[in-house]
Each structure stands twice: as C-alpha cells, then as structure tokens.
C-alpha cells in the first residue's frame, strides 16, 4: 500500500507545472511573465531571439524579473556585454509614489542556477562574471561620463514595489549623463503622458505594452567589462478607448553627449524603428501584426492642445515649464495662453 501511495505521489508531482524560475528558457514558460508581451509574442531579433527561443543559450539569458514574490517585467540579458538587450513591461499608469531611494540589485540565478529566483541587493564584495555589479559603475561619471540608465524607467512603474524592481542592474545600461538626464528623460515623460491619455484596455483601465532596448557598441566599455551602447530605443503599442483601434509609437537616440546633439527625440513609426534597428540586426519585429507599423499618434489629444509636447520635466515627470520659441514659461501660464487663442 505504501508503494502505491508513493507511486501516486510521484504521478501527481509529474503532472504539476515546473517550478517558476527567474532565469527561464522561454518567457512563455511563466504565465505571469508572458503577460508583459502583447498576445505573448516576444520580439524577433535574428541571431539573438527568434520565435521566443534564444539562439545562443550560453550568452543570452531570459529573465522574468521577480521582486517581492511577484513578476514585475521581463528582460533579455547579454552576459557577454553585461547589459540588457531589452526590457519589456506593461504600463498601467504613472507612479502613485515618489521615486524611491532603492539600493541596486542583481539577478542571483545568473551566478548559479539554483540560487534564489528573487532579485537581491548587490554585494560590493563580489565581481559578478555574467552581469554588471554596482562596483562597475564606481567613478563612471568622471571616467566615462556615464551613469546608470534604466530601460524600464522608474517613472513608468505604477506601484512602489514595481518602481523598486526597476533598480536591478540587469535593467541598466551605461548611459551618457546629459543624454540620460536630458532628451531621453524628456521622451520617457512624454511617452508616459501619451500612454496615460490614450491607452485603455477592455475594462477601461490604462494599459500599454512597451519594449525598450539598447544596441551595443563595438568596443566602448565601462571598467573594461560593461558595454556602453551606441543607440537606445523604445516602442509602445496599445488599444485605445475606441475599441479595436491600436496605436503605436517609437523613439531612438544616440547615446552621446547632449552638447553634440541637442535635437529633440521625435516620435517615429514602427516601420521607421525597424529600418533603424535592421542596420544592426536583421528581420526585426517588436510587436505582433495588430500593432500598426505605419500609423502613428503624431499629436497628443490633450485639452491644452500640444502644450505638454514641449515640456521640461523633473525627475518625477512633472511638467515644470514649457518651451515656446526658445523661451521657457511656467506650464500654467502657457495653458492660459493656449485657452485664449
């Protein structure tokens, strides 16, 4: 009888799904991780990720980013360059809390497969072989002029724990300080406003799918270990309140000093983004076919016209002033001027 009971137990265990792991073979292996991709469809980057399968299993790792027992977003990580290829997440509204003072974290399972699936606080005593550590960014500003640039930005995380989860170094690339704090941050805030005002799911809740990536350089590194990318890009797709109508948008910018390139990042189509990324990869596709490649939301449908299209934002994406013909005016004053027109 005892043997039968043991056999029954083994049979039952064999029918259970595999234990959820932080580093996975496919994002689709974890239902809570699959949801960060529209229709569960992951991006295609020939030679790296095709049909949801990593082409070089030793170099590239799929991370279901787990923090405080919940999956927060998904990352494709390049262990050779020690930077993410992209991070994918769902935008469900702007943060409800101020930016947290959060210690930097790492992915334990990149060090050893049977480590905890929860991201952990970085240890400054260890040099990680397959990922960047906080020590790699020591003196990064005076030496290389770069700081820690989020792919999934804290300003796009709706709740406090998800905000904190973005502070894993597997979500970070070395980004030129003036670019990170200038045009790129302004773009992130503009996208936040766009998604907040235009994206609604079947339950009339804010929801958009976003993928943000970095194209590595040939030989520009931080601490002789961490690649400093040449190009950063982002794309979004969402359904609008007009059910069945989907909108998309994309941005990219060279990771260079703002003094060399002060031109504002402008919204592009998916087709334009694919063309740009195909200079570095091939057969790129970020979203499934229902996301229009050529259509784009060129102007924000705001009550105040396009006031927020020219904002100067603070770290919490609050529009403090608006550029008007070379001048910066308080946003309230500009809103009054627009209403008087």
TrEMBL record:
Keywords, comma-separated and alphabetical: Signal
A Pfam family: Endonuclease_NS
Protein's UniProt keywords contain Signal: yes
Domain DNA/RNA non-specific endonuclease/pyrophosphatase/phosphodiesterase: 69-287
Range of residues in the leader sequence: 1-21
ENPP1-3/EXOG-like endonuclease/phosphodiesterase domain location: 70-280
The protein, known as: Endonuclease domain-containing 1 protein-like
Primary gene name: LOC123738283
